[in-house]
Amino acid sequence: MKKTFTKVVKSVTKVxxxxxxxxxxxxxxxxxxxxxxxxxxxxxxxxxxxxxxxxLEGVPSVADxxxxxxxxxxxxxxxxxxDVPMLxxxxxxxxxxxxxxxxxDGTIGGQKVGEFEQLEGFEHISFDxxxxxxxxxxxxxxxxxxxxxxxxNDSAFKPAVVHFEQPETVNTFIITPIRLRSDQL
Length: 185
Fold this sequence. Notes:
It is a single chain. With 185 residues, the protein is an alpha+beta fold. The chain has helices spanning 3-12, 84-93, 129-141, and strands at residues 22-25, 28-32, 36-42, 51-54, 60-62, 78-83, 100-103, 107-108, 111-112, 114-118, 124-127, 147-152, 160-165, 169-175. The strands form three sheets. A ten-stranded antiparallel beta sheet has the order 5-4-1-2-3-14-13-12-6-10. Strand 13 (160-165) and strand 14 (169-175) form a beta hairpin. The longest helix is centred in the last third of the chain and has 13 residues, at 129-141. It is globular. The termini are far apart. The relative contact order is 0.19. The mean pLDDT is 91.
């Protein structure tokens, strides 16, 4: 199992046990902690239908798991190409902070972390540094060590998404932003 999956599941084991596990179906594998979601969709679904949640101890249960695919934004018009090593350095430096804020000029705290490939109405978005580090760890586990493309909405409140094409799966990482109060901007 990927390290990122384990971190997501561990983060909710005590507080939200109904989603604390890896959800398997004949079409996908997924995890969530309500702040991030990872969906690995099989390019060729398995023939037999099943729906099971397996916790970190390997104990299965019949799943009443949320439909995570509905969370994937379809209207994110902004494409930001992240420099993975640079963003990782910035996120690690700020990991004890409440948030990191990506600005429309491609910076976080004045440091350039990438370039917009497509920019349409985007101003800024804030994320918990812990979840940014999870995203970057997952990117590395998926073979993306230098650059990834993150899709952003023009609203600072809608989730961002990164897609990873793999030989047998199409993987999606969803990360929800932090809503800042006006005195935090």
